[in-house]
Amino acid sequence: MNVLKRLEREGVPFERTKHPATYTARQLAATEHISPWNVAKPVLVKADDAYVMCVLPATKHLDLRAVGDAVYAEKVRLAFEEELAEVFPDCEVGAEPPIGAFFGLKTLADYTLMKDDYIVFQAGTHTDSVRMRMEDFDRVADPMYGNIAVD
Q1: Are 149 and 112 within 8 A, CB to CB?
Q2: Is residue 73 in a domain?
Q3: How far apart are CA 58 and CA 121, in angstroms?
């Protein structure tokens, strides 16, 4: 599934940028010359028996205990690289977009993202990114919000 085509098909306004390969959310922020607060960092976790797409600013780290509390899971762990490749077969590993709904996943986003007007994220490759208004992200990702990030 091509993320850019899916966004177009769903009528979601966005801007696409081609850039040199970036492998971290902070690198993407530097390449795009934007604050890392505006870069949405997706983190796939396994919560009990289900995968959950967690989304937080590039400046933060995921609090697995808080994720477990938010989704009522007893066991939460980061997904392995092999699992990323399986869950996101059409994406380069590490360049997954933060829209779990496109992959049949629940999306859990950190509250701090709500204060931003827009977010930027990888669009399935290390050389393509998307800039989108938060209200459009909310509409397409339908995230649940929680306090899941720490410094």
Answers
A1: yes
A2: yes
A3: 10
Q: DSSP letter for 57, please.
A: E
**What is the C-alpha separation between 40 and 148, in angstroms, rounded?**
13
Q: Is residue 51 part of a domain?
A: yes
Contacts (Cβ under 8 Å, ≥6 apart) of 92: 124, 125, 126
Q: How many other C-beta atoms lie within 10 A of the C-beta of residue 89?
A: 9
CA separation for the pair 32, 86 (Å, rounded): 29
d(CA 127, CA 21): 5
Query: How many domains does one find in the chain?
Result: 1
Chain center to CA of 32: 17
CATH of the domain at 30: 3.90.960.10
53-97 confidence digits (pLDDT tens): 999 999 999 999 999 999 999 999 999 999 999 999 989 999 999
Say what the pTM is: 0.93
Taking only the tens place, the pLDDT of each residue in 132-142 is 999 999 999 99
Q: Is residue 150 part of a domain?
A: no
Write out the residue range of the structural domain in which residue 131 sits: 3-144
